[in-house]
Description:
Order of helices and strands: EEEHEEHEEEHEHHEHHEHHEEEEHHH
Number of strands: 15
Number of domains: 1
Number of helices: 12
Amino acid sequence: MTAQTFVVAPDNGQRWDALALGEVMLRFDPGEGRIRSARQFTVWEGGGEYNVARGLCSTFEHRTGVLTALPRNELGLLAQQLIQAGGVDASQILWRDYDGIGRNTRMGLNFTERGFGARAPLGISDRAYSAASQLQPEAFDWDALFGQHGVRWLHTGGIFAALSEHSAATAIAAVRAARRHGVAVSYDLNYRASLWNSHPDPEAARHTNCAIAAECDLLIGDEYSFAACLGMDLSDLGRRHTPMDVGPAEAAAVRAMTQFPALQAVAFTLRDAATAARHGWAGALRTRAQLYVSDAREVDLLDRVGGGDAFVAGVVHALLSGKGEQAAVDLGAAHGALAMSTPGDCAVTSLAEVEAVARGDGAAARR
């Protein structure tokens, strides 16, 4: 086992290896077709934060749970069953009464086209007034979760934080409580301008993301999200020479670690989206001492949604397991590639398959 510099609390019988705080939506997938002409949809569960917990559990066999809220109706029950089918602990879901038409609380929906060739993927969210967007900081007993029950890792993200002023305050309360209890914290900036632009405070993204980043051990984002979410002036870094150029993102990561002393590392993916069906793909992790980069590969995509979340799950797995930073980016990149080879937000794979891809094993049929 390779030594790692990233410090994580040891496994001392905590109830969960990792918890994810965020919204879980129902995703409606028209398959190879388009939303505008669809006559049927396949339904999946998904969410930027939840997908990490799902991957950690279903692929890497960690004990994970989700912190979210659902409406007490048939759609909420469907989401609960899908969560449980993935092995994620649903015991901490908060249930909200449903008024019959979704005026006060409802299930977040996400309609997603996969894209193909020159046709880019398309996502249409219908999530206003969702149960998760109305979560308040006092909704969870943070000291009981992180202290009495015990957690080794908390993951949350900028999509949940951007849903409302309430969700932003909840994310800040969660990461501060986690740090008090020695729980490692990761945060994926996952910038969505359409969400942050609805906030009454035009500086909401910078204020919220900086407050959360200050409590993080692992920050996920590149130079573009650092500028948009953290207000960092990175104009002097210049543009990437190619989409896979690691230089500007690494330089931004170093500056982020200077601005936020608690950070142990910054992770980011590299993607060359030449077409919707084939991408150049790699993962990187910058600690305070060194840059780690996975091998770059050409990935044929069936469904690109969730590739970045699967990358984060692989990174967190390796760090939780003490496998070292190079293994973190190798397993993360391999897991992300496999996630994009199947429909739905989450990878349908195994640790052995992820390790085989990370080693560079061929794709010949296994019999």
